[in-house]
Amino acid sequence: MSFAPPVFRCALTLGLAATFLLAPDASARAGDKKKKDRGEATMTVGGEPWTASSARFKIKKGALRLSMSKSSKAGDVRRRESLTLVIGDYSGPGTYTSPRGSTFTRVALNPKKVEAQSKEPGGDAKVLSRLLNKATAWMLTDAQVTVTKASPTEVVGTFRWAPGALPGERIEQGRFRAVIRTPRKKMGSKPPG
What we know:
Elements: H1 6-22, H2 26-30, E1 40-45, E2 48-51, E3 54-60, E4 63-74, E5 77-87, E6 94-98, E7 103-109, H3 111-118, H4 123-134, E8 136-139, E9 143-150, E10 154-161, E11 171-180
Parallel strand pairs: 3-11
Antiparallel strand pairs: 1-2, 1-11, 3-4, 4-5, 5-7, 6-9, 7-8, 9-10, 10-11
């Protein structure tokens, strides 16, 4: 069940689909010689345990943005789930309510099938329709976030969300240790020197 408006779901699903096709797969990252601290996050979603493969944060114009995600692959099917929590009036450790901008998304696709189906007449519409029907996008209005520790490189805390009057799954027992998000190098840029 999804609580997101159709236009939002469409844009979100297209963005996640593009992320799947461009993102390196988790097994490729596991072989890195130099292990980067990717942060950590856990929670239960509808009573099921969920563990992120990365937890990052960014502070911009007084707003704290926490981004947690995980990707998996089973056969040819790729699955990506992400949680974003936004605190607009962030001022350090404390308890906050996220009024808007916080989301949980889940999408799975088979890139080989997507490519084959998109070549058929009307294929793009069929692919989009299937993605929308299988994607989950929750707008986490009034998510509760408690920041217990904050430094220039790390933010630690807890979070939870319930859909209020709407029936649906809850996000509970959320814990995170998010590390600062560093900008990616632009392709084709030359190193200094």
